[in-house]
Amino acid sequence: MIETLIYSFITAFAITYLAIPVVIKIAKRKKLFDVANSRKSHRGSIPTLGGIAIFAGLIFSLTFWTKFSHYWQLQYIVAALLIVSLLGIKDDIDGLSPLKKLIGEILAAVIITVWGDIRITSMFGIFGIHEIPYIVSILFSIFTIIVIVNSLNLIDGINGLSGSIGVISSIIFGTWFFFVDKNSQLAIVAFALVGALTAFLKYNITPAKIFMGDTGSLALGLILSVFAIEFIEINKLYQGNYHINHAPVVAIAILFFPLFDLLRSFSIRIAKGHSPFKPDRNHIHHMLIDLGLSHTLATIIIDVFSIIIIFIALIFRDIGTYILGFSILIFAILITSILYYFVKKKKKN
What we know:
By secondary structure, the chain is an all-alpha fold. The protein has one domain (2-348). Helix content is 71%, strand content 2%. It has 13 helices and two strands, in the order H-E-E-H-H-H-H-H-H-H-H-H-H-H-H. The chain has helices at residues 2-29, 50-65, 74-94, 98-115, 134-154, 161-180, 185-204, 213-237, 247-254, 256-271, 284-290, 295-315, 321-348, and strands spanning 33-35, 45-47. Helix 2 (50-65) runs antiparallel to helix 3 and helix 2 packs parallel to helix 8 (213-237). It starts with a helix and ends with a helix.
């Protein structure tokens, strides 16, 4: 089985690596650029649609190396991926209203939860809730998918960030899936995603030659949401050596940075009386750039922060859901408050 993980990684890496120069060439010829403006953190015009190459590498590797008969939900994951990728292509090329994008995301989430039956069925005793009724389970799972998808979409603002966060999260999820079940098809998908993202990062690290765009970030968020839900649900039934207590909190920790940044940004916008969907420069990566850090250094700092959060959650996973969850949240608020202080100080000077 481990050979299959390696092959899936190599296949996705190779196809994505070879496809990106072609995408860049076509994007330049058709003038499909992300043009810099006051809200952007890059300079000049950079081709978008890097997500097409990521999608191509992932889908080819997934369909070639996985066994749909061993994990029938894969057909619905692929169908949902096609929907969000088409949404992303339309948005990257011609623009798409937030409402239409949301409707497409809901449709993809419905396919995952209703037809694929990939959904959260228990709250693990959080707020005294255990089993969730079917309809509530569907609605809550759709909401969870949409939140994760948009959280990955929103952090795609500096070179290497979304891709590296995706790599870190996929390695953690994929490794756990493999240890729990040596024949896990989810592990193959996870390492195929790592391969595609690693190839993309070669072209996305400063100086970036291409961005993943919504095509990539929406697909990435969708797959990570599937990993998170399956991680929670498998832990509900699995009681082996690799069982994770308080799985929902650990799943949140693995995706903590994008989720925390989304919550923080939306809270700031609402507090200012703005729409939570109104773009701004209040994201954490913007704050690091405003301090004078390069895209690469800002990405590394965020990646290290994310890894620290994940290790805290894994090491202290037995202390209880509320204590662990609030401890991580307070730690993150403290760090970002210090960062905010230095940004304000620099702006005054």
